[in-house]
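Data availability (excerpt). The following record was deposited with the supplementary files.
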Amino acid sequence: MMLDEIARFAPFPIAVISQAHVIEEVNDPFMNWAARPREELIGLPLAGILGTSDIVLPAALTGDNRDGIPIAGDDGGAVVIRATRISGARSIIALDPAWDADRSPAGQTRALGQRERDRLQLLLSASVAFANTRIETELGELLSETARRAFNASACSVHTGEAGNYTLVAGDNLLEKVWPEAAPQRGRMTVEIGQVVLIESPEQADRSLPGLGDTLRRAGVCSTLAAPITDSGDALGAFVLYFDQPRTFDAQAVPLAEALAQLAAQVFVRLRLEARLRRAAMLDEVTGLPNRRLFEENFHQAQALPTEQAAVLFLDLDGFKDVNDTLGHAMGDTVLQQVAERLRTVFRQEDSIARYGGDEFIAAFHVSEPSDAVELADRARAAIAEPFAQLPRELAITASVGVSVAPVDYPIDRLIRLADQAMYTAKNQGGDQAVIRLA
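Predicted structure:
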């Protein structure tokens, strides 16, 4: 629910309630306000805590309530509730301390300005929206827009990646065109500093890093705020805000930036874990190579130069059935593992290779000319024809190889079909050879 992260910024009562308006979770300020420990509050109706015998919360509790819902208590007092839906059955609410302090069970509340209430609502909405993202780029775009709105900035850029190497994934980096080539990446600098950095003027920027002020001036930027995105000490990236007017940051700027960064960090970690698990599920258990589904996904992600063509190599092992029938499937698996290793030495890291099924392997890559694909197919065939130490001489393994070449925008399924047909031609001609077909 990310309740703890929201509570870091919001020093006022927050709770999660069910569709029946029963309390499921509360933060510390809520416990202080109610003068009860968490274990007593969980499971109680919200109406009873608010001091009214009956409460009907309007439909705003199933959506985004920015203006607040005034609720009258039995004693004539009033509470304003702000709410954001977590799911169809649950909502996260904040009690706006805009009522008489004497009505509070703990007798301790304080008024908040409209800006703070707006920021709270933004965090409530962000926590739900972030949690519903499915890919990193979507989360980056949402973080960029949320942070820009939260601080009324001119632009926001989000940089993520591996430690020491971050790329722009969302938003606009207003410093990109004027950033010195010798300077470290903007996102990398923020992560290495390890805390929110506030720069209110180019003059202050020069005091922090000589020459940075000139960079800001050339970009038309007067102020910046940069926040690292980290989780348990692991660097995930950073977001940077840009202001085209001088900006004086209030006392809540750092806590708000930290809260947004932490909310995003938790989702980034989840998305990356899900991606790793998804890819692990698409790896062949015997060879460790991608399976057919991951192969096609990797091929679509590969980058090609405008002058290059797409090529697919479809390879079927000659003599593999005899190995399985004579020495058993365990030895067959050993042969498959060694074939995979040999193919890894033939292809480049950016090429896509996979076990397609049974004793069939497939590879996709980009070439300048069809002859380059044939040369690579012959290298793969020769590598597999090398003796296998565990096999007797009469159980030699070779490969029938089919190759197809087409423009880079040619459908991958049709390219695979052409290579498969070429492979069968090679096998029908005696095996241990490569045959090419052009689209």
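Summary of structural features: The two ends are 53 Å apart (CA to CA).
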